[in-house]
Amino acid sequence: MNDVQQASLFGDDPAPPAVAPPVAPPQEAPSPPKRKARAGAGAQVQPAAPGAQLQALAGTLPSRLHLGTSSWHFPGWQGLVWEGAHAQPTLSRHGLKAYAQHPLLRSVSLDRGFYRPLTASQYAQYAAQVPPHFRFVVKAPSLVCDALVRGEDGRALQPNPAFLDPALAIESFVRPALEGLGSHVGALVFQISPLPLALLAEPEALLQRLAALLHALPALRPVAPDAVVAVEVRDAAWLTPAFAEVLRRAGATYCLGLHPKLPPIEQQLPVLRALWPGPLVCRWNLNRLHGAYGYEEARGLYEPFDRLVDPDPATRAVLARVVAGTTRAGHNAYVCINNKAEGSAPLSVQALAEEVLRLQQAP
Fold it and tell me: 28 in a domain, yes or no?
């Protein structure tokens, strides 16, 4: 990719191009008849039949693009992802196979392991439910990624002596994930929780600790050829050239975290530029309208997550450009979207796919 193409990819154009006609919002499935949610066997969770337009859209996407959501257990996705009404526990246990048959959903963010490490056998159960092309974005456990030990209410209790501990990261996360998921690993994400001021005040020591962790990790590609290690943060103080250099030297990448605790997507792109060329990992977590602590507010406004409530076309347009440029250059792109980003993760995925298609068709 030449300098002009790279500038376009990362938003350095001296003048913005003419705005193309807006892409029509994705067609929302008609509301199905309300039925009582069932808690039956997994065989009852069947995929929703995709329309011809959705199948055609999926056929246009690059094979290296893996779009997905954060988990799959939402009853409100009836008609979008699966047929019939199902209770959340049923979908948690049995919904992944139906989810993975959706033509656009080629990935999912496994966030469950952040709260408690998963075993290799648990990962293997997930891998057995998805097709060969499916890739998982997997979050490392908080016992490695949070500098603080927290109570059940989330309040900090004391410093975490295992923060960024390489041996613990390998034994509790990397090895079980590789053993259980195998070639289905797309990205192993170390999402570093908000840090206390005392640690942020010593950036060099913090970066040395991160570097020690990353360099200690085993090679992923002998087991998972498409896999990459990514680091996601929750403090803007991380986003420096020194941080990018630590990632580059370790062969890791930055997980683009679209969250109100961080600057907007355009202001995070310099980190990706410093790591170019390479894969893209992105987790679109929460609409900026709701602020840094707005998950509960967004949940209350957006449930049952069956429509786009607060579309964010500006963020989507920039993200689509980075996705298109990354895959066009022959690199993988893993993008997982939360319901709290716009109101319905499957519909956000569809809207992003349509924007990527528009860029592919542009002269």
Answer: no
